[in-house]
Fold:
Amino acid sequence: SAATMVYLLVSTENTLSQGPTVCGDEHSDPKVMQELGAELTSQLGQTFNEYVSQLPPCAILNKLEGLGFRVVAATGAGQTCIWTLHKEA
Structure:
């Protein structure tokens, strides 16, 4: 269930460092997504929904740290920055 999910992926396009920031998918904890100001969205052609916040990535990462998440990995893929976060269960 969403309440037991301990990993979270956060990403943004390099050219959009001021936001929006993708904060999770439809399986993410809705309470955490609400704290991030993220709304569940769908895009034409995607087979999944994702939570998107208009906040910049740094603000999202700071909020997640306040909720007990820690960044455990970061990478770039093309023009996208991706952070993997973990929270102890």
Q: What stands out?
A: The chain is about 20% helix and 40% strand. The chain has a mean pLDDT of 89. The radius of gyration is 12 Å. The beta strands are 7-13, 21-25, 39-41, 50-53, 70-77, 80-86.
